């Protein structure tokens, strides 16, 4: 029998995380290249509906890994449940999205199983019979191809934007779904989650945004951010910024994009007055379409953007807002 690739998808707040679809695309590509069987699992309490959603895609089988103790999420419960499940199924490769939740429990899970994890990967390649996974290093200045020396199962997480979630192939017929009830012993869960802090509820998860308007030092003054806000509102976009804007306190830190902020992959990314330092580019180069407005024709961001507008953003953005509003009014 061929080896198995297992994708562990993430569900939170009643829906599948967008990066889970991207990880599924990666799994499908790996399965096609290796000839291994592709399966998926979703972990939680009452997650069969999520499993059915995944089953519509091109996978051999989907597992709903269930226990009442898996809701709410705790790293102890998730690592215990997945350890039981993975030891029973013995997949060769386990893929997960590189989300905050996965980052929380995967070191515990891998250590409990005496394995290692290659995290935050942006791609993979085959070198003969060996799989290599690509990770960025030194804030994106270098990329390293890393392989496993330990026995399987191997654990890999993929960075947001490394693959296209909309490229996940649909299956010709729904894959079978199996419910697996795991036993989590009393005393395993050592912490009790409290209500989510109000600050956390207000925090922005830019990884889920489809359109982002981002501002850099070219905005000049804090009061000028209002112009970017107007454009974001007209487009139905989230507002974001490069690090200097957040360091100055002009926008909250949860709006920062880059190696020390959030990594995003929206359908559309508008960069206003952002020169394109490598630390910022690392955080947004996975965007499907990038439009950059900068008066410096030599700005590094023009090397990666799809549409380059050389000019003063204060001359360009106001009429752009009006045109967007007209287009929406006419639709």
Overall description:
The structure is a single chain. The chain folds into 2 domains: 4-181, Rossmann fold (3-Layer(aba) Sandwich), CATH 3.40.50.620; 201-330, TPP-binding domain (Rossmann fold, 3-Layer(aba) Sandwich). Helices cover 30% and strands 26% of the residues. It has helices at 18-34, 48-55, 75-89, 100-112, 198-202, 225-235, 243-247, 278-284, 313-330; strands at residues 4-9, 11-12, 15-16, 37-44, 61-66, 93-97, 117-127, 130-137, 142-146, 154-158, 177-181, 211-215, 238-241, 268-272, 289-294, 307-310. The strands form 3 sheets. A 9-stranded mixed beta sheet has the order 9-8-7-10-6-1-4-5-11, sandwiched between helices. It has a 5-stranded parallel beta sheet with strand order 13-12-14-15-16. Helix 6 runs parallel beside helix 9. The mean pLDDT is 92.
Q: How is this fold's topology laid out?
A:
Elements (H helix, E strand, L loop, with lengths): L3 E6 L1 E2 L2 E2 L1 H17 L2 E8 L3 H8 L5 E6 L8 H15 L3 E5 L2 H13 L4 E11 L2 E8 L4 E5 L7 E5 L18 E5 L16 H5 L8 E5 L9 H11 L2 E4 L1 H5 L20 E5 L5 H7 L4 E6 L12 E4 L2 H18 L1
Parallel strand pairs: 1-4, 1-6, 4-5, 5-11, 6-10, 7-10, 12-13, 12-14, 14-15, 15-16
Antiparallel strand pairs: 2-3, 7-8, 8-9
Helix pairs in contact: 3-4, 6-9
């Amino acid at each position: 029998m061929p080896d198995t690739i297992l994708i562990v998808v993430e569900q939170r707040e009643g829906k599948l995380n967008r990066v889970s679809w991207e990880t599924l695309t990666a799994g499908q590509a790996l399965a096609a290249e290796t000839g291994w069987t592709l399966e998926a699992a979703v972990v939680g309490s009452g997650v069969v509906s999520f499993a059915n959603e995944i089953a519509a895609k091109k996978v051999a089988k989907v597992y709903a890994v269930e226990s009442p103790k898996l809701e709410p999420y705790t790293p102890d419960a998730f690592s215990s449940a997945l350890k039981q499940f993975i030891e029973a199924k013995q997949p060769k490769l386990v893929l997960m999205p590189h989300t905050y939740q996965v980052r929380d429990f995967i070191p515990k899970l891998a250590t409990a199983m005496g394995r290692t994890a290659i995290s935050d990967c942006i791609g993979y390649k085959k070198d003969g019979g060996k799989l290599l996974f690509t990770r960025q290093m030194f804030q994106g200045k270098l990329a390293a191809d890393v392989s496993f020396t330990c026995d399987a199962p191997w654990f890999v997480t993929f960075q947001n934007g490394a693959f296209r979630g909309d490229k996940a192939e649909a299956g010709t017929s729904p894959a079978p779904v199996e419910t697996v009830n795991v036993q989590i012993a009393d005393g395993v869960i050592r912490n009790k989650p409290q209500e989510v802090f109000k600050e956390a509820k207000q925090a922005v998860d830019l990884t889920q945004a489809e359109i982002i308007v981002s501002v850099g030092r070219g905005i000049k003054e804090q009061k000028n951010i209002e112009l970017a806000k107007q454009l974001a509102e007209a487009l139905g976009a989230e507002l974001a910024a490069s690090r200097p804007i957040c360091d100055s306190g002009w926008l909250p830190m949860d709006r920062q994009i880059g190696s020390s902020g959030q990594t995003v992959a929206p359908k559309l990314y508008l960069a206003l007055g952002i020169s394109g330092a490598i630390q910022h580019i690392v955080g947004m180069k996975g965007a499907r379409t990038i439009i950059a407005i900068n008066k410096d024709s030599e700005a590094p961001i023009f090397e990666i953007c799809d549409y380059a507008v050389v000019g003063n953003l204060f001359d360009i953005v106001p009429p752009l807002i009006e045109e967007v509003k007209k287009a929406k009014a006419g639709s």
